[in-house]
Amino acid sequence: MLGLMQDESLSVPLLMDRMEYVFGHKEIVDVQGNGGPVRNLTYAQVANRVRRLATALDDLGVSQSARVATLTWNSLEHVELYLAVPSTGRILHTVNPRLFAGHVEYIMNDATPEVVFIAASLLDKWWNLLQSVESVRRIVVIDDAPDQAVPADPRIIRYEKLLTDSSPFFGDFFIEDDRTAASLCYTSGTTGNPKGVLYDHRSIILHALQLQLADSFAIQEADTILPMVPLFHVNAWGLVHAAIMSGASLVLPGAITDARGILSIIQDYRVTFSAAVTSVWSRCAQEEDLSAWDLSSVRAIVSGGGPIPAVLADKYLSAASIPLVGAWGLTETSPVVSNGRVVSAHRDADPVTKRDLNASAGVPIPLARIRVVNEAGERIAQDGSDFGQLQVAAPTAAKSYFGSTDQLDGFTEDGWLKTGDIATFDQFGYIRIVDRAKDLIKSGGEWIPSVQLEDAILEHPKVLEVSVVAVQDAKWGERPVAFIITAPGESLQPSDIKELLQDKVARWWIPEQINIVATFPRTATGKISKKSLRDQIGERFLAQ
């Protein structure tokens, strides 16, 4: 027997309903990082533009289920595309403009978009590539750089003209089946070609709800949210959808990524919540005096994509009373699976322990299931000590990949996602990421988790960032090599780190090679590129 509840589709049009009928008075601010004027629009005004864009997609002849690609920044237009494309039965295909050309070419040819919306500021970089993508029939230019020359190509139309020439769609947007594909994002391709993750309407709505829960990000109507995480990657971690659903105000930074620009936005617009990869918040603390800025409006900053150094968390707490909150997830999981917080069992813990719990990968959020298994696929002891392969099952997690890649590569026979992370899981529900499986170092037949070694090195107060990778060794098979960036104004010797580690880790974990560096190579999403560091070591070895 089935229940007698309504068949209301969990789909993106629900967000339009919230914009128009519940939160029409709330505001979206587009700061426009390319020198343009600040734009302030109400949700009701944005909804009208979304309706015009919906009509325009029909007038352009965009097919149902067609991929509509975007190459643009965190802008008003991108938010409008977030709503109009999936609400009309098409698939929003966000493309990371920071990827190298070979990966963007692969992604475009794999996804076969019919239309591309591109920021004028990106035309010089990507125009030649766009001409080679056979599936692209129309190109819509978003005018974020008024002085940018636009090619004389009959396929091109300006975004604002497209909206001006289109009348608003009247009526209700409707997606009958909430398992219909809504958006497409590719992984960063750090170990091969990027893989396509195809989100459905249901997963987007459920993930937006997850972010509003008290034990998650607690996104709420009273918030002013600054998504520093890019809208072109993993649906901006769901922040845009959650903001619209909850009625929070949105502040969009455009192409701004510099420390002074970010802190200015937080101060000027009284931002209460923001999220980005750890390197963004590290740059802000490294290049600016946080105590010189009025950051009193901020209730929390989420930091993902890598561990949060204790020295960085301390700096935000001491200078601005802001907790850095850890989060963990993947492109394949929408992305948030867990977030740092202090559970009731630790309510009486000392301040340092609470800081570390907040900054950790944390506890799985509701609807997300995790398991940690050994090589035989059996769950390991939930003791916070034994480690194994971390796997995820959730209505917000992928069950296969899109496109030409091996669609079931990375999934278990019973449908769980193999995350590629090695982790522990304790009795209070905390996940601790020990390492990426590919980054574990096997020395003399024993495992050295690079993340645990990095965590130990980060306990030195003069260390800002660290990355540990493996180098081939004739005697031991592999040995760890450490790369360290010091805190501003500080200096370190390799011997200082070796001395620190004497009482922190097993002696055979201590690296023989410790390199003090000025910068790290980064992936297109801002993470430290361990592959590039390993390549540097290999080139150095071959040169000897």
Brief sketch in words of this structure:
By secondary structure, the chain is of the alpha/beta class. 28% of the residues lie in helices and 24% in strands.
Shape: globular
Structural class: alpha/beta
Strand order of the largest sheet: 2-1-11-10-12-13-14-15-16
User: What fold name goes in the CATH topology slot of the domain at 7-26 and 40-202 and 213-219 and 230-246?
Assistant: Rossmann fold
CATH class category of the domain at 7-26 and 40-202 and 213-219 and 230-246: Alpha Beta
Largest sheet: 9 strands, mixed
Overall pLDDT metric: 94
CATH architecture of the domain at 7-26 and 40-202 and 213-219 and 230-246: 3-Layer(aba) Sandwich
Estimated share of beta-strand residues: 15-25%
Looking at CATH, the homologous superfamily of the domain at 7-26 and 40-202 and 213-219 and 230-246 is: ANL, N-terminal domain
Please bin the fraction of helical residues.
25-40%
From the alpha carbons, calculate the radius of gyration and give it in angstroms: 23 Å
- Count of helical regions: 15
C-alpha termini separation: 73 Å
The total of beta strands comes to 25
Poorly predicted regions: none
Tell me about this structure.
This protein is 28% helix and 24% strand. It is α/β, with parallel strands linked by helices and 544 residues long. Among the domains are: 7-26 and 40-202 and 213-219 and 230-246, 3-Layer(aba) Sandwich (Rossmann fold), CATH 3.40.50; 440-543, ANL, C-terminal domain (GMP Synthetase, Chain A, domain 3, 2-Layer Sandwich). The strands form 5 sheets. It has a 9-stranded mixed sheet. A 7-stranded mixed sheet has the order 7-6-5-3-4-8-9, with helices on both faces. Strands 17-18-19-20 form a 4-stranded antiparallel sheet. Helix 1 packs across helix 2, helix 1 crosses helix 8 (239-246) and helix 2 (43-59) crosses helix 3. It is globular, with a radius of gyration of 23 Å.
